[in-house]
UniProtKB/TrEMBL annotation:
Binding site for Zn(2+): 135, 138, 157, 160
Residues annotated as catalytic: 127
Keywords attached to this entry: Metal-binding, NAD, Transferase, Zinc
Organism annotation: Pseudomonas mangiferae
Stored InterPro entries: DHS-like_NAD/FAD-binding_dom (IPR029035), NAD-dep_sirtuin_deacylases (IPR050134), Sirtuin (IPR003000), Sirtuin_cat_small_dom_sf (IPR026591), Ssirtuin_cat_dom (IPR026590)
Coiled-coil regions listed in the entry: none
An example Gene Ontology molecular-function term: NAD+ binding
PANTHER family: NAD-DEPENDENT PROTEIN DEACYLASE, NAD-DEPENDENT PROTEIN DEACYLASE SIRTUIN-5, MITOCHONDRIAL-RELATED
EC number: 2.3.1.286
Name of the protein described by the UniProt record: protein acetyllysine N-acetyltransferase
Top-level taxon of origin: Bacteria
Domain spans labelled Deacetylase sirtuin-type: 1-252
Keyword Metal-binding found: yes
Enzyme class: transferase
Amino acid sequence: MDERTLHTVLRAVTRAERILIVTGAGLSADSGLPTYRGLGGLYNGLTEEGLPIEAALSGPTLRRDPALCWKYLAELGRACRRAAPNAAHHAIAELQRRKPGCWVLTQNIDGFHRRAGSPVERLIEIHGDLEPLRCQGCGAPGGDWDALLDAPLPPRCGVCGDVIRPPVVLFEERLPEAALETLYREMQVGFELAISIGTTASFPYIVEPVLQVERAGGLTVEINPGVTALSGQVDIRMEGRALDIMSQLLGHTLSD
Ligand code: APR
C-alpha cells in the first residue's frame, strides 16, 4: 500500500470524531474462520445433501428439518469457538475506546468484536450473535455451546421439548428490529468517515450506510484483497488483508 494512501487514511482516522466501521467475514478470515463467498467460502459449494448452504441455514429449514439446520449451525458454532479475535478486532476495539463516536456495524456472528473489547453499546450486530442460546418455543435459556455440542442434535428444551437456537439471523429471517433502529438512528447523526472491512457488501443495509457517508461529503474507505460491490464507489480502496492493513493503520494512530 502506498504511503500517501496510508497517510490520507491515517489523518482521517485521527481527525474524525464520528467513524463507522463496517465489518464482514473477511475480518475473521485472519482468525482462521472461513468466509461465506470467495476463495474457500462456505457458500461456494453445495452441502452433502446437495443444498445451497443458504437453504440449510434458513429459518424454514430450522422449522421443517431442525436436525439438518443444526448440522450446519453446529459447524459454525464449533469453528467460532475454536478461533479467537485477531489483532484487527483488538485495534478496532482500542479505536472505539479512544473515540466515543466510533461505531461498528458487523455482519459477523462470531462474537469476536465483543471478545476483543468493543463496547457493546456501540456494536451493531445486524446478523445477531451465537449466544445466548434459547428455546424457540418457550424462550427458556438453552445452556451453553460446549454442553450442546457434546449432546445429540438438534438440542431440545428441557422445559417444553421445542428446539433450542442461537439468536442469529438465518436466511429468510428478519433482521433484529433493535439493531436496525440503532443503525438508522446513528446514520441520522451521521459519520465523517466510513471504513468497510472484509465484506462483499452483499446487502443494502451494508452498502447504504457507506454510500450515505459518501453523499454527505465524508471519506469512505474499503479494506479488502478482492473487489466488491462497494469497490467502485468508495474514495479509497486499500487492497490487502485486514490484519496487515489495520495493524499498519491503527498501529500508527494508536501509538500517538
Ligand atoms: N482481510 C480482508 N478481507 C478479506 C480477507 C482478509 N484477510 N479474506 C477475504 N476477505 C474478503 C473477501 O474478498 C470478501 O470480499 O472478505 C469478504 C468476505 O465476503 P463474504 O464471505 O461474502 O462475507 P460477508 O460479506 O461478511 O457476507 C455477508 O452474508 O450470508 C451472509 O450471514 C452471512 O454475514 C454474512 C453475510
